Each structure stands twice: as C-alpha cells, then as structure tokens.
Amino acid sequence: MVKGTANNTALNSDLTSKPVRTPIGWRDSPNCYGRISRTLHWLTAALVTLQFTVLLAWRGMGENAITLFLASIGPHGSLGFMILIVTLARLGWAWINRKQRPPHTPGLGGRLARFVHITFYGLLMWLPAFAILRQYGRGGALRFYGMELLPEAERDITWMIAPAELLHGPLSWLLCGLVIGHITMVLIHRFWLKDRVLARMVGSRGR
Questions:
Q1: Distance in angstroms (rounded) separating the CA atoms of residues 201 and 203
Q2: Higher pLDDT residue, 104 or 9?
Q3: How large a percentage of the chain has pLDDT more than 70?
Q4: Where does residue 146 rank: exposed (0-12), middle (13-18), buried (19+ CB within 10 A)?
Q5: Pairwise CA distance, residues 201 & 24, whole Å
Q6: Contact 22, 12 (CB under 8 A)
Q7: Cα–Cα–Cα angle for 126, 53, 202, nearest 5°?
Q8: How far is residue 161's CA from residue 163's CA, in Å, rounded to a whole number?
Q9: What is the rounded end-to-end Cα distance, in angstroms, of the chain?
Q10: Cα 29 from chain centroid (whole Å)
C-alpha cells in the first residue's frame, strides 16, 4: 500500500512538473508573440528575402531566364510597396499590443536590440517611401503587379527625387547587413545562450 502510494505521488509529481502548453492566441502576451505578430514578421522576412534575392541575382547574373522569372514573381517596386504596407501594419499592431508584448532583455543587450528593431522599422518604412517619391517625382507610372496606380506625367520634382538618389542604395545595404546580424544573433540565442528568444516567435506557449 505504501509502495503504491509512493508511485502515485511520484507520477503526480512528474505530471505537475511539466509545463502545460496552451494554444497561441491572436494577440501578443508577455511570454510570446501572437499569431498576427508572427504572420506579419515572417511575411516581412519573406518579402525582404525575395527583394534581395532578385536584386543580387540581377547583379550577379544579369538578364537571363532565371532573373526574369524572379523579377516576374517579385517586381522591385511592387515588393517595396508590399513591404511598406506590411511594415505600417506591424507598427499599428505593435502599438495596439504595446503593453503586453514580450519585453527586451535587461541591460546593454536589451537596449541594443531595441535600437536595432527601431532601425529595422525605419528602414523598412523609409526605403520604399523614398523609392515611391522618386518614381512620382520623375513622372513615372506607379504600378503594383501590372495594375497602374498612378499614370505617367510630365514632371521633374527635385526634392522628391533627391532622397532616394542619395540614400536608397546605401540604406538598402545597411538593411541587408542588419538582416544578417539579426539572423546571427537569433542563432546565438538559440544554440549558445539557449534562451527563449526564438521560441517567442516560433514556439508554442507554455505556462
């Protein structure tokens, strides 16, 4: 009888020691990001990856069947417009969830991560905005996957063209460098520090 009671106690202890996993909600929580934040995050990652893949393919191979196919999937201007829209949606959703999102780690590392995230948002918003201004200032048509949003026009507005001419290229490569750094830090957190930073965006929620 005593042995049976001890076994039951041990079994109950094992069960209660394991965290109970609950489904991921739509909204964020202090433990993890919700479904909408995750969807917007990975959609941004896919769009930016495709944008740089097309760009680097054209830089490396020139015009051929592969680069023409990639460009048909992800026209540079259309992808930029989509990145701008998704970024604005992310900013709006982050504001709505600002009081319940997972916090940054304390100390210098957390402050640096916060600065990098703010820089990400700034680049993802201003790079396509500069490009759209340049296109409009030159009088070129604005198209989204073949749909003409604004027709061509006779104009040459210098102040609209200048920011993109000066900054679009350097800031694009800065964004590329930040993406590489971001991926590197995620891998460091996952395999060296072994914390839950990656799990907040890809794992299930445990209590």
A1: 6
A2: 104
A3: 87
A4: exposed
A5: 10
A6: no
A7: 80
A8: 6
A9: 34
A10: 18
Distance of CA 52 to the CA centre of its chain: 14
Site of tokens 């460091």: 188
pLDDT, tens digit (0-9, with 9 covering 90-100), for 144-161: 988 898 899 999 999 999
Say if residues 117 and 179 touch (Cβ distance below 8 Å).
no
Length of the chain: 207
Tokens describing residue 206: 């445990």
pLDDT in tens, 5-18: 444 444 444 444 44
What is the per-residue DSSP string for the chain? -HHHHHHHHHHHHHHHHSPPEE---SS--SSS--HHHHHHHHHHHHHHHHHHHHHHHHHHH-SSHHHHHHHHHS-HHHHHHHHHHHHHHHHHHHHHTTTTSPPPPSSHHHHHHHHHHHHHHHHHHHHHHHHHHHHHHHTPPEEETTEEEE---S---HHHHHHHHHHHHHHHHHHHHHHHHHHHHHHHIIIII--STTHHHHSPEE-
Q: Which amino acid, residue 15?
A: L
Q: What are the residues whose beta carbons fall under 8 Å from the beta carbon of 21, sequence distance 6 or more?
A: 204, 205, 206, 207
Residue indicated by tokens 């995750």: 38
